[in-house]
Amino acid sequence: MPQRSAKSGLFPLLATAFIWGWPNILIKLVSHDFDALTQSFFRYLAASGTTAAVCLIFWRAAYREGLRNLPHLLLPTAVVTAHQITYMIGVYLTSAIAASVISKTSALFVPALSFLLFPEERAIIRSPKFLAGTGLALTGVMGLVLARGGMMMGEGLAGPSLLILSAFLWSFYSVLIKQVTGRVDPLAITGIVPLLSCVLFFPVWVSFGDLGHIFVAPARSVLIVLGSGIFVIGMGNTLYYVAIQRVGTSISTNFLLSTPLVAGVLAYLILGERLTPLQMAFSAVLLTGCLLISRSARPEASQQPSAVSGQQKTKRKNVLGFTDS
């Protein structure tokens, strides 16, 4: 990787890690003013406008081509909409730190689903790193789920269970998108999927959400919800795409395992949340397992891939990091 490219990719990578540490904190800040579905719908509405505008300004041709292939995006959009609903409710029922850590279990589900659907991926799941990482990740999740002392805000295991289900749905979406990128440019996907998700989300919100919350909530809370969609999903995903182009998928994926650390610091400073030493230990075990799993993937071609192969690689992988919050 050229030194200049690596240096130019450092800022978007650091910015993405910082931005993606915020979603659970912002969700918690306004959770008393909005039900989970209303907050989730308006966050995605703001995000869809942002990503669509970015695509129309910078990647208009790819966006128009993507609009002509909408049928191929319907199933992935339905899955990511279900992910967003379960994730938001899960965050409401747990602490911001717990949600951030548990969501990283998607690193476990993606290879497992790829094993079932893509024969070329099956060597990964048999690797010692993957098996060791899986064991550590499962141990960390079990420890966090069984932890007490303020980690779980809801009753029983509902919150952690929804977050694990959400991580699975996110992983399923990632695998589906990998199949779709042969037909639809990933640049277009980042702008179209949030918009389609809002369309699918609307009847769910009308049926089960509180339509009046957005009109009676304090202006500060409304701005936080809309700003969260623009800032976390819109800007975060755009910067993540730039980082992948400049430093590659593996480096970006591994580095962004640091987002729970960012979330933990922010949750402590803003929400007053803190982990016990035992909870911190299980969090470290989980993240170490996820790191091993992500490093069990095959190398990204070679040290100096050609421009064409590099572009093809990016097209296959860049959308897999679309934020899960």
Structure overview:
By secondary structure, the chain is mostly helical. The model is unreliable at 300-322 (pLDDT under 50). It is 76% helix and 0% strand. It is built from 17 helices and no strands. The chain has one domain. The chain is globular. The longest helix is centred in the C-terminal third of the chain and has 29 residues, at 219-247.
The ordered H/E elements are HHHHHHHHHHHHHHHHH
Low-confidence stretches: 300-322
From the alpha carbons, calculate the radius of gyration and give it in angstroms.
19 Å
Task: State the domain count.
Answer: 1
Q: How much β-strand is present in the residues? A: under 5%
Termini separation = 30 Å
Strands, total number = 0
Estimated helix fraction: over 70%
Q: Tell me, rounded to a whole number, the average pLDDT.
A: 82
Structural class: mainly alpha
The outline comes out as globular
Main beta-sheet annotation: none
Number of helices: 17
Fill in the keyword field for this structure:
325 residues, mainly alpha
Layout of helices and strands, plus pairs?
Blueprint: H1 3-19, H2 23-29, H3 36-58, H4 60-67, H5 74-93, H6 96-102, H7 106-117, H8 122-125, H9 128-146, H10 158-180, H11 186-208, H12 213-216, H13 219-247, H14 249-255, H15 259-271, H16 277-295, H17 307-317
Short recap of the structure:
The protein is mostly helical.
